[in-house]
DNA sequence: CACCAAAATGGAAGCGCTTCCATCGAGCAT
DNA sequence: ATGCTCGATGGAAGCGCTTCCATTTTGGTG
């Protein structure tokens, strides 16, 4: 029955005191480089890894990180996105010896600030992870900070990113990537189904999209429609477009759900995808491989975002400060996009 | 800055020693009922909750639970199912102060027993969560037990359920529910797309399905085809059925992915769902709401299964024994099923 | 070369809990 | 009554780590 080695084993092996090992562990100051190295080597040889439980217990710091996701009663929850965030956050917490507490708050609720304050008061978490559109709600963020809780905003817009810890992707570049893809295929008349205006990240995606069109010499304002990220709103937006007989050869959507909805509307209207109209999504949810045809979309590392958020929170414990982490994204080209057929 | 109350606070409030509170906490023996009650009340009043970190540290038990999911290189991983399991397991671990370690093992790999042994040897987890088809691999389970690790089988077949801890749903009844639904709508000729034979739970679903048909007076063997749970295999199975011109009015599938595949094949063949053919799935993945038409399916509480699995593992620590937890499931009737039209 | 601040290191306490062992009565047979 | 067992309770140690403070070492200065 092999017992994991402890900090004392390392200390003994390195010929130093336990405290010194602890300092090395926490990148503490006042350790001579050679001592540090010796301790490092001892850790290596013993295959040592810290016991997060013990660490958390000793340091006595709050052991909880709170994940708040938006959940309006009317809107169906974006289960994939939220599940991904929770999964990532849990992984991060697990690795760092924290507990995750998940809460839902209605972003429309007038009362949400008071609500947050009372939650924070009861729990005193070590940090708060906010997802859109809460991560763009500056007043909400400020309420949390006033309560002395470190905040990290996930996929937030520029304002939030410049005032608290943040993780996300370069939304604007991601949007540009989609626009460039469509433009390079030869599409000139493109429709865009946007997300809700409070969702700053989606707005940035749209800006990037416009950039790409402009760079490709397409200066006409594209036809746009605003959805609320649900499948249903995608259906409705596309139906609206068909009703108006807008002559587009491609429709870009601010997320996959709306793209799937749009595809359904097009299917119903007996329009072939991508022959008649190309469609793009955003997020690369599992659904994008299931719909027909498989959806061209942007893969966003949702789990990694949340995991990173936890680390950020722990690293910047009480240091306050602004830190903006951008994670990589990727355009996944599938069969829902092709060059426009010479017809429209 | 409110500090959470500790076991000592409770002890003081109840006028007993710390140990006694600990005994109450762990349902230990040798505490007089009235003392127990007094302690309980004190806990209540102080809003006490155990510090799992401290508990885990003190009890010195392994702090890790290992989730092993099957992952063959050829087969696309069932991301929704696996993500759900991981999410649930993480929640459970988080609540109980355990860490979750996730591993993937190829169930086809001859070498998997040795592989498992070496993993277990290195990590010594407090328990092992096995998902199908590994949870039906008796020899695999035995290997783990021989290494002295408690095992819980998720969604396993009867053999595994009778030899280790297990959580799942009553697969047979769930299958019966689907069969009864279809039969009650008036379908007499029904096709069934099965899962792989090693997947015992899927086989049970099929048995239950047959039971229902028999109960409805349908004694003909239904037309069946075996898939591997992938979207693609669903497409192929349905195409096979169409090629053979089997005169079914409904197709039941062992999971949602195959159902979605079958639907695609039917769409391509210009068959309307549910007018020409009804389709059912199993699992209620998010996809079932996205496909067109929305899929009638059985909702299985995947996250809860995994969460329960963790609890089982911890409760039965070193007690060995067999325990079979059945969680509730639910038939979700959507638009992919209707009475057969008077045509076939 | 003595002197001192600053850097490097170590000792000890304690986080909240469990576990091991000792203690204390009560109830029972002798 | 006396001795014993057994159920109920408490004392003390310690899990692996951090933190506070004391101590030793270093290297720069006059």
Instruction: Indicate the mean pLDDT of chain A.
Output: 88
> What is the radius of gyration of chain A?
24 Å
Strand order of the largest sheet of chain A: 2-1-3-4-5-11
Shape of chain A: elongated
Tally the helices of chain A.
14
Q: Assembly state here?
A: homodimer
Number of strands of chain A: 12
Percent strand of chain A equals 15-25%
Uncertain parts of chain A: none
Q: How widely separated are the two ends of chain A? A: 73 Å
Q: Can you give the helix content of chain A as a percent range?
A: 40-55%
Class derived from helix and strand content of chain A = alpha/beta
| Biggest contact | A-B, 36 and 36 residues
- Note the run of SSEs of chain A as H and E: HHHHEHEHEHEHEHEHEHEHEHEHEE
What's a quick, concise take on this entry?
With 344 residues, the first copy, chain A, is α/β, with parallel strands linked by helices.
């Amino acid at each position: 029955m092999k017992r994991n080695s402890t900090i004392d084993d390392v200390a003994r092996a390195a010929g130093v005191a336990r405290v010194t090992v602890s300092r090395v562990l926490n990148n503490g100051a006042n350790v001579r480089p050679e001592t540090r190295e010796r301790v490092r080597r001892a850790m290596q040889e013993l295959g040592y890894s810290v016991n997060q439980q013990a660490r958390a217990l000793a340091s006595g710091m709050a052991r909880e990180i709170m994940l708040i996701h938006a959940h309006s009663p009317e809107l169906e929850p974006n289960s994939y996105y939220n599940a991904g965030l929770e999964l990532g956050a849990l992984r991060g917490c697990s690795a760092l010896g924290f507990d995750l507490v998940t809460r839902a708050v209605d972003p429309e609720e007038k009362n949400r600030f008071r609500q947050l304050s009372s939650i924070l008061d009861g729990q005193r978490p070590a940090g708060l992870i906010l997802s859109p559109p809460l991560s763009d709600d500056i007043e909400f963020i400020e309420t949390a900070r006033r309560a002395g809780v470190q905040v990290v905003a996930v996929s937030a817009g520029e304002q939030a990113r410049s005032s608290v810890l943040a993780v996300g992707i370069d939304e604007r570049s991601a949007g540009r990537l989609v626009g460039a893809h469509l433009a390079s295929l030869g599409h000139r008349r493109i429709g865009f189904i946007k997300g809700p205006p409070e969702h700053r990240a989606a707005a940035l995606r749209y800006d990037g999209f416009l950039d790409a069109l402009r760079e490709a010499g397409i200066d006409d304002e594209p036809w746009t429609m605003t959805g609320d990220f649900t499948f249903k709103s995608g259906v409705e937006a596309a139906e609206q477009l068909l009703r108006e007989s807008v002559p587009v050869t491609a429709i870009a959507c601010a997320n996959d759900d709306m793209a799937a909805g749009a595809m359904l509307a097009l299917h119903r209207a007996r329009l072939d995808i991508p022959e008649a109209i190309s469609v793009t999504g955003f997020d690369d949810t599992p659904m994008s491989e299931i719909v027909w045809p498989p959806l061209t979309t942007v893969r966003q590392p949702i789990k990694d975002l949340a995991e990173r958020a936890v680390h950020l929170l722990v690293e910047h414990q009480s240091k306050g400060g602004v830190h903006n982490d951008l994670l990589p994204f990727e355009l996944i080209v599938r069969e829902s996009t092709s060059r426009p057929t010479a017809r429209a």
